[in-house]
Amino acid sequence: MRAIAMVMVAVGMTTPAMAQRTGYQAISAGDFTTATRQIEAERRIFPQRPELMLNLAVAYARTGRIADARSLYGEVLRRPAVAMDMPNGAVTSSHAVAARGLARLTTTLATR
Questions:
Q1: Cβ neighbours around 80 below 10 Å, total
Q2: Is this prediction's pTM over 0.85?
């Protein structure tokens, strides 16, 4: 669960409704199917939001959709970097989060 927390993004998360729309609560609870459903619905409205792409990549990776996760991380890296507020209070770039996510996918594949 620690690896997930390091890549969950909570940009501007100030309300429980925002946490639900970004899939944060479902990811925290380990319910990746619900997180996928919530984030995909939100991405239909806001397809360019990096926090949605990054959280969806986490949910995809945890449900075995590695290629889809990799694609989303790549999409984030092709866009301008955005400052992201992380759940632990740190601020980091969307590119740094995506790069860590990609590295975890590579490590996961290499150890199987």
A1: 8
A2: no
